[in-house]
Write a structure and sequence with these properties.
The chain is of the alpha+beta class. The chain has 8 helices and 7 strands. It starts with a helix and ends with a strand.
Length: 208
């Protein structure tokens, strides 16, 4: 699990939104324009790859990139994706990539193998200043010391998507992946369905 650099990048993402004062979320103005989603996805992933050169990020887009034109705020979506990608990488097992995919029109999914989300905490992790109960102090310490906050990323990302009349949800909590799980997966001992069930999956949906 990588922590030090990712935490500083998360802080920069939050500060770039100027949302350290929670009240400013209510005043955050979106400027949606009809445009293709894919350039935003590609540029964001390229930027995050530069930030995480030692952690390759794989994203699979299963539809023609010219067919998913949506009315959205480019900068706002980029902020959401940066936070989600860095947050996922922060809690991922480094031997498996974070996956950003486009399974259907108007839908983006972010998948990672990592610590998972504890049962009954699927909604709590989106609350202000909340983290999963399985987040250890060494994972959180660097972020808290640099920002003075914890548990902001998902809260901010969901609020932005709500302002855009879209949504951000956890569609699969995944599980805490062990070294044995990684070995079994690499040796092909899991069926595709069994392997897929290990992933934590967040879903971004655009306004219909």
């Amino acid at each position: 699990v990588i922590v030090r650099n990712i935490n500083s990048f998360l802080v920069l993402a939050i500060r770039s939104l100027n949302l350290e004062d929670f009240a400013k979320l209510d005043d955050y103005t979106l400027n949606p324009i009809l445009q293709d989603v894919y350039p935003c996805v590609a540029e964001t992933v390229a930027m995050v790859r530069v930030l995480l050169r030692s952690e390759p990020i794989e994203y699979n887009i299963s539809y023609d990139p010219f067919h998913d034109v949506r009315k959205f705020d480019y900068s706002a979506l980029q902020e959401v994706l940066v936070i989600l990608l860095l947050n996922a990488a922060k809690y991922s097992r480094s031997s498996f990539p974070v996956r950003l995919s486009h399974p259907a029109p108007g839908v983006l999914q972010l998948k990672n193998l990592g610590i998972g989300v504890p049962p009954a905490e699927e909604e709590a992790i989106f609350e202000r200043a909340r983290q999963g109960s399985n987040v250890t102090s060494d994972m959180a310490l660097q972020f808290e010391s640099r920002s003075g906050h914890k548990g902001l990323g998902l809260y901010i990302s969901r609020r932005i998507m709500e302002k855009a009349k879209g949504s951000l949800t956890l569609v699969q909590p995944g599980k805490a992946v062990t070294s044995q799980d990684l070995l079994s997966a690499s040796l092909g001992h899991y069926s595709p369905r069994e392997l897929d069930s290990l992933y934590t999956v967040f879903e971004v949906r655009f306004k219909s």
